[in-house]
Amino acid sequence: MHHKLGWVLTWAVSAQALMGFLDGYTGSRDPSDIPEEKGSFVPISVSAMAQHRRDNVGTDTLEYRYSKDSGQGTERRSSSLRSHSSESSDNSERQGLVEPYPLSQFNECDAGNIESTLQLRPLSGFVIPKGGIFFWYGLLTLGRWMGCFADLGWAWNIKPSKRIVSSRKASAPSAEFVESLVIFIYGSSNVFLEHLAGWGGAWTAQDLEHVSISVMFLGGGLCGMLIESIKVRHLLNRPIHLEPDPRDASESHEEWQEPKTYEFSMNPLPGLIIFLLGLMMSSHHQSSMVSTMVHKQWGTLLVGYSLARAVTYIIFYLSPPTSLLPSRPPSELISSFCLISGGLVFMASNKDTVAAMDDNGLDAMFIFTLTMGLTAFLMAWAMLVVAVKGWALRRTSRRATKMLAM
Questions:
Q1: What is the pLDDT at residue 195?
Q2: Model confidence, pTM
Q3: 301, 292, 305, 299: which is closest to 364 by C-alpha?
């Protein structure tokens, strides 16, 4: 059980996240907002700014005051005291400042498309945070290795019975079922969210590719949940499930017992789906070399997770677990590392981040090396937190034992 303070903090953070989502999603739909004021605060992406500049080449631009200008003489046809004192200072000033971007030059159609897209984007970012799913999936995998879910049978151990844990925990689904369920939800919801970037426009071949990946997630997650169902497993065994003849006393009943592998879930579907996703993203064509390399990095990391998970299943198929304590297979450390780092690189592969890297002359290894260091630090921090929790529980147990002895 969690401490009372832990429950309070959990509910407070959950309420804050929910209120932030509701405020961000419903606040932009206030009918009393003034369109002119709304347009000035719409965040513009790098690609939208570049497209606008290309469409408005040769148009007259407004005069803007430089930061060295004192403000005196701002009337028409008058000059300030410090206006353009030297050509070199003007050039340095122009290089140091972002070129002005008059939003008033946008037509109403473009502003409407941007607004409709931005209104739907908070929903997609909250429900399906893309790379964030793999990041949290990696932390969950690390938690399974550390033994955080041993009472549910998720720590690569045999599932405790009702005599040891509560009936709710004893009847909890397997970790592979939860993984398949998340994959199913990801695919079923992403089918309707893949066209948000081109909202109102024609579907492209890239949109259809992304929808196909979502359908793969939907079908793979559903198949994984069916594999984890005990009832479905018994129905699949029914054609060969014959009762032994009780009159034959010499017949051994051991051959009618369930295999030892039935006591432990080994479902390859979640790993297979992520393996295929990694292969697709490793060869996914992008608009720039940097973007292509970044996609190849996180695709390769997802492939590494799938291979490490396959090693785990091979180990436990040859020697199924027999203890209630966590097994801690070393291959799961590699799985969690690949998932956490792959999710971080995935989140860094968005268009704006890649455009900023191109503008500053950075290559794909910059993101990769930073992510590897951050991943190792996060894993060490998670292990330290769980270790402190174990120390606190052991100390509390000792105090309770001393009080009972008195």
A1: 66
A2: 0.66
A3: 292
